[in-house]
Amino acid sequence: MQRDGQARLDFIQNMEFKFLELLSIDFLASPEDVIRQNISFRYSLLKAKAQVLQGRLKDISAILKLKNPSLLLQLQKGSAPSNFGATKGGSIYQG
Q1: How much is the pLDDT for 73?
Q2: How far is CA 85 from CA 17, 28, 35, 88, 94, in A?
Q3: Taking burial as the number of CB atoms within 10 A of a residue's CB, which of 13, 29, 45, 92 is the most buried?
Q4: What's the confidence (pLDDT) of residue 91?
């Protein structure tokens, strides 16, 4: 990269008898405000996705609280149920 913000990226294949240039790309550094806008946009996008996922998690937790409170407690503790998939007879469903 040069001091003026220009850069070049070369992809070169080393053949036995010569070097073969596969691709060359010239770059120019973006202004600081463009970089800041891009970072801000990406951060906001990820923050919005996180909020959506947290909402889904709350919805699932509410459903589990009504349908299967013991499973919810096990999930909140961070451990998966040890008898997951077991029926009342003790056998495991192999659907």
Answers
A1: 87
A2: 63, 57, 50, 10, 9
A3: 29
A4: 42
One DSSP character per residue, 5-72 reads SEEEEEEEEE-SS-EEEEEEEEEEPPPHHHHHHHHHHHHHHHHHHHHHHHHHHHHHHHHHHHH-HHHH
Q: How far is CA 75 from CA 2, 26, 39, 53, 88, in A?
A: 54, 51, 34, 16, 21
Which residue would you say has higher pLDDT here, 5 or 44?
44
Q: What are the φ and ψ backbone dihedral angles of 28, each rounded to 5 degrees?
A: -135, 130
The residue ranges of every structural domain in the chain are 32-77
